[in-house]
Amino acid sequence: MMRHLFAVLLLLLIAAGQARAQLPGGADEGELKAAILYNFALFTEWPADTLPASAPLRLCVFQGNALLTALSGLQEKQVNGHRVSIRTLPAAPGGAQLAACHLLVLDAQDRERWALLKHDLATSSVLTVADDRIIGANGAMISFGIDNRRVGFDVDLVPVRQARLTLSSKLLRLARSVQ
Length: 179
What we know:
single chain; alpha/beta; Aspartate Aminotransferase, domain 2; 9-stranded mixed sheet; two-stranded antiparallel ribbon
């Protein structure tokens, strides 16, 4: 129920052109971030050869990620005709495992492996979303976080374009910054 409320809240903010969402009192930060990640997926277009019609949208995360529990609530939800499938990756995934993802969620625990992950993903159409400022500043496509109970995110369009992804202008208008 809370996830639906947060998704609706973000959609209303998009419609109103607001740049940031306020974290409601007593709200679970993980659930809010999962709802925002869901909306990132809603407003992203993958190449047809990467995400064919009706294929599952694979959201990948490493074991131990702080958002794993909240993200599991997205399992089986629909994103533009694609069923969300949550995949937990091993500590040292192979390139094929990463390339099979459509959205990869990273956090502070992934800092040490980020350089290798970024290299392995260089030719893949995987949307990388960092819940960590260091990874975000070092080439993740979307970096988000909460400051003073406000959710904000930044977008780096260079890796987005290299991955052949398209982010909706509605999503880009909400970003704190677009590089």
